[in-house]
Amino acid sequence: MFTIESLHQPQTLSEVKQLVEKYPDITVLGGCGFLKLSSRKIPVALDLSRCELEKIHETEQHIEIGAMVTLRDIEKNPALNQWFDGALPKAVSHILGVQFRSCATIGASVYAKYGFSDILPALLALDTQVELLRGGRMPLVDFLSKPITRDVLTRIVITKDKRRVSYQNLRNAGADFPLLNAAVSKHDAEWKIIVGARPARAEIAVQASKLLTSSAYGTVDSGTVAMAASMELAFGSNNKASAEYRQAMCQVLVKRAIEEVLA
Ligand SMILES: Cc1cc2nc3c(=O)[nH]c(=O)nc-3n(C[C@H](O)[C@H](O)[C@H](O)COP(=O)(O)OP(=O)(O)OC[C@H]3O[C@@H](n4cnc5c(N)ncnc54)[C@H](O)[C@@H]3O)c2cc1C
To answer: Do 178 and 95 sit in the same domain of this protein?
Structure first.
């Protein structure tokens, strides 16, 4: 368990900004699911739980998710279950158990850019922006391509559109990390294919997505596109699975996701 020497609990984002400027090495606390696995000493910690970032707010055009919203809140939220075929609630529902999901936060889960993330592929399949205290607002795909810098993720903003989405994952056991996951979305004629836990971070298969988008209506060959995605992306080996197995399973998950969207 970690120890904290000095804890700050600001009530507004402008107070958060002042603290971040005063203590450049301040440690942001989410639900502490990962932080509490370490025994590190944290000189200055920042608790965001009083900054009103624990709400999911639906507007006419967007769904805004505060950084302190838990994965369980996402799983149960009516708007997120109604939009995008419930892909985001479905993706988080595979992460450990209810007690863990009731603590782990979306802000930390996105900010940390975990390779094994179940959340990132689902969010990448949507029109998602992230809001950072210092970095401002940017598309999730741009945020993921930048190196991690010291900042505070405050909000995730998803545009409400009528896209169809499918999320797929493969695990050796129910509560284990995924050994591969995939999300596919179709917005008007535009398709997007994302594969994560390769074990590298989720990435869009750009060429395979274009191939699918250019397929004439009614002639989609999901097997060929899934094969193209598995050839385009890089896969690695770790204690969960070999690169070859991941590449083979990528074809299965992507094909299944395309067919689910088409159905
Ligand atoms: C045992 C275990 C199994 C897991 N399995 C899975 C899995 O199968 N699939 C999956 O997708 N995820 C999995 N996770 C990750 C989990 O879903 C969360 O993403 C993770 O716990 C981080 O969320 P947290 O709120 O607990 O973060 P914390 O532990 O509080 O923080 C994690 C890091 O993020 C920083 N941070 C926190 N909030 C912010 C913020 N708003 N802005 C900037 N930085 C911030 C912290 O300083 C810290 O460095 C697992 C985690 C654990 C511990």
So the answer is: no
The CATH code of the domain that includes 104 is 3.30.465.10
Coil, helix or strand at residue 113: coil
Q: What are the pLDDT digits (tens) for 45-75?
A: 999 999 999 999 999 999 999 999 999 999 9
Question: Per the structure block, which two tokens stand in for 10?
Answer: 């600001």
Tell me if 153 CB under 6 Å of ligand 1.
yes
* Cβ neighbour number for residue 137 with a 10 Å cutoff: 12
Q: Does the CB atom of residue 105 touch ligand 1 within 6 A?
A: yes
CA 227 to ligand 1 center in whole angstroms: 32
Show the domain range for 179.
Answer: 164-262
| Same domain, yes or no: 191 and 228 | yes
CA of 114 to the centre of ligand 1 (A): 8
Name the residue at shortest CA distance from atom 8 of ligand 1: 177
Q: Is the C-beta atom of 121 inside 6 A of ligand 1?
A: no
C-alpha to C-alpha distances, 15 to 65, 105, 195, nearest whole angstrom: 20, 21, 38
CATH of the domain at 247: 3.30.390.50
CA of 165 to the centre of ligand 1 (A): 24
Q: Could you tell me the pLDDT band of residue 219, with boundaries at 50, 70 and 90?
A: confident
**Helices (H) and strands (E) in the chain — how many of each?**
11, 12
Query: Three-state DSSP class for 239?
Result: coil
CA 86 to chain centre: 14
pLDDT band at 172 (very low <50, low <70, confident <90, very high): very high
Q: Does residue 151 sit in the same domain as residue 170? A: no
